[in-house]
């Protein structure tokens, strides 16, 4: 870019305290069609101004700033035609110009301006209106460039600063106050290290203090700066270390001798949000977000380290699986929000039982894993497992719900049950499933026999998913007799599975797997529809059939619609269906359960509690529920003799008394002997079922026995 003039050349006076300071500016001005005069020192400059006429004065003040040049500036303004002045100085020198009268204040620009910026400024000052006689090619107006630079400096979201050769701050924008709570004027003249944290100073003792070579003129670093939290009475600061990304470049002055390092230009960007996001990503990669516990990946890493440590010191490591019993029921019936809070509460309780150095992990759902290193004996793991079981048995109070869960625990020890990481995890899982299959709320160590049972379970689960498609399920019915009328009171439906290889399987052989996998919902839907289809086929409007439902089925959101749809599809009255639920269900959210059962009861369905006495229900809740029947579990009848002195007989008597006081029908299940029948009859229990009367029958057989008299002794 060039500046040319028509007519006489414009005369420019370049003045400074030292001639060496003029070399850079001289080199830039050579490309312009200007008449250049040089002057060194204040006295020589004033003499030239009084003797000759200049169109523009380019001033390069020294370290002191503009104050020594005030008289020269006044002389230039007193000329018949005031002479414009352009001062090239550092921001610190410009800030020292408070004593300069506004009337003679020159236009300020950078000490080492770019060629384009200098040419634009000269053009603007020589021709402030139309710039007649001067042609500027390929540049934006100088004022706009200055405004742009000023706008960027003052409105940048980053700290912009300039250091001198000693690393001292000569300029810093206002962003430093909002980011670090320090006013810019407090920092002028101070070394950049005043902003750095003590840790960063130790790590980078010479940062911004070295003389950079051209190869290192620019750099990007991450350092920590100090944010002032408060200014103490003794003048010290209470600060917080904040991460910043520093983008810095050295500034150089060029002369006939080469380049000279003059300072640093830099930008500091607060990267707190970025670091927090990166930290969160790292946390999410190795932790469960709901509980904050280690996830599978971190658990495996820690287990690998624990195994390596045990190989050296000869200790044992326990891998423990904890699965919550009845959690799916709570999650389905009350909602996922309460379920999530319950998982968090369980995590806190289990954590409280552990030793320092143990690891609790969440593998997903309601399943937790524990790593117990540095064990000496198997009993050490048993102690911790029993503490966990004891804690889980205490009620949980979440959003006004009183919730009960228990735990099934499986344990595998290194090196007793395996030496490979994956082997230990798998065998602890197998032991946990063994616990669930044998009563839950307990613990078991892995043994080789479990391996075969686990494999068998996997095969059973696979086959179970095909049973509905293959039409392998069927129903049998057992009559419930009324001794007073000597006729059938109702039927109870029993589910059977005609397995292609294993033969006929009873519910206890496959329903626990169906419950765990969630297949119970689809299977339950098939049972209801088949019962209604049989009722429609038999065309007996006074017959009632009892159908068993698991807690998970009842808790399902579509349970009510399932019942009504099946009854409507087969033209069956709801009064012909009795819904048998287990005591475990009564331990869950009473408000929701009561509301659901009352709706069903109003529609005509009768409600029975099956296997009463074997669960954990509170007797106090029975009178609040819309119940019609209590079914006494067969285990209480086995020890009843003619003398009726057993403890079971006392329980039977108590249950009968309670049912009578609550005006509930009592049905005794599993009646096998005349003594049992007679004892129940003496108590006043007149409805019974069991092999004494009739074993379960197929659907075709059941239709012919519906109105038959009770069998004789």
Question: In words, what does this structure look like?
Answer:
This protein is α/β, with parallel strands linked by helices and 713 residues long. 39% of the residues lie in helices and 26% in strands. It contains 25 helices and 29 strands. An 8-stranded mixed barrel has the order 20-21-23-24-25-26-27-28. The chain has a 5-stranded parallel beta sheet with strand order 3-2-4-5-6. Strands 9-8-12-11-10 form a 5-stranded antiparallel beta sheet. A hairpin with a 2-residue loop joins strand 16 and strand 17.
Give the % helix. 25-40%
The CATH first-level class of the largest domain comes to Alpha Beta
Radius of gyration based on Cα positions:
45 Å
Secondary structure category:
alpha/beta
* Structure annotation, total helices: 25
| Strand order, largest beta sheet | 20-21-23-24-25-26-27-28
Assigned CATH superfamily of the largest domain:
EAL domain
Any idea how many domains?
Answer: 4
Distance between the termini: 123 Å
Number of strands: 29
CATH topology of the largest domain: TIM Barrel
**CATH architecture type of the largest domain:** Alpha-Beta Barrel
